[in-house]
UniProtKB/TrEMBL annotation:
Residues 296-327 are annotated as: Disordered. Residues 313-327 have a biased composition (Basic and acidic residues). This is ABC-2 type transport system ATP-binding protein. GO terms for molecular function: ATP binding; ATP hydrolysis activity. Residues 5-226 form the ABC transporter domain. Pfam families: ABC_tran. It comes from Halorientalis persicus. Keywords: ATP-binding, Nucleotide-binding, Transport. Belongs to the ABC transporter superfamily. PROSITE patterns: ABC_TRANSPORTER_1 (PS00211), ABC_TRANSPORTER_2 (PS50893).
Amino acid sequence: MTAAVVAEDVRRVYGDTTALDGVSLAVEEGDVFALIGPNGAGKTTLVRALLGTTDAEGDVTVFGTAPQQVERARLGSLPQSFDPPARLTARELLDYYGGLYDEARSVEAVLDDVGLTDDADTWYEKLSGGQQRRVCVGTALVNGPDLLVLDEPTTGIDPAGRRALWRLIEDLAAGGTTVFLTTHYMAEAERLADEVGLLADGKLVARDSPDALIADHGGESRLVIDTDAEPAITGDLDYPAELADGQLTVYDVPPEEIGEIVAALDVAGATYESINWTEPDLEDVYLDLTGQAVTASGETVSRGETPLADGGQRTDWDGSKTGGADR
Ligand SMILES: Nc1ncnc2c1ncn2[C@@H]1O[C@H](COP(=O)(O)OP(=O)(O)OP(=O)(O)O)[C@@H](O)[C@H]1O
């Protein structure tokens, strides 16, 4: 395979701030690469280094040449902040941006891609925040690029719109477009990316397929049961477990063994209300590598604030008790 993007030892320093501290990566043609990491980690700076819009040290090549020398029609990019003229309609904006290229896709096709056909004739300023973001994504698609660089493309877009955009990105990648995106949504990275890179303090601290990252850093599966069981129940189980606030969490239970845990509760005379088994995912990887958990709303909280870490006790394989924060 050929690399569409190669970065070697890329550094960018702003005054006293080292935004990028020696980042190296390669993105194969046709792959989707998702860059994740906390606020201020350097994601936007790396995007700008790859596009050649910031003066970084190190080597960057895009399709084998310096980013500034790549044929413009081959590149599509969406900056994190983008304010197009507010008193143009979605259709006019896409027409305008398409006019910057010798050959552009039909505006109707791009409107359809981003789900704006029905609102095509509304002024940009009258669209909702999520609809505006879709217009912005559309501007990156007008030239049918070979490499699409998207800085937080789905921020502000509602769940249905986000899923529609995920399908679009999957279709584009299936058609051979290389996609480099940044995101704070772990589900987005997990679903779309062939490779995920985790940037922290300007360094790429992990880079692999979502499955490999989850296997290496995701931790165990979890069986969570709302129950009135006594704390001693954790000693009756064949798996590491903790009980806190009426919630029993059992780690590493294969799905076919869930019945054994339920039977142990029955034997102990405990009742239970709900049973939930979850496999580790990219959010667990993020938690493990950054110490920040991702909440349902997409916000991050420090590890010490997570419910399991707060006062929960866990029985480990050797029978010793550890707080959840030590997981
Ligand atoms: N033009 C600039 N001048 C000075 N400092 C900058 C500039 N751009 C970025 N920085 C600093 O570089 C660091 C990385 O910023 P960057 O915007 O790349 O992070 P990010 O990972 O994209 O963050 P976020 O998730 O919040 O968008 C931050 O400390 C930021 O304050």
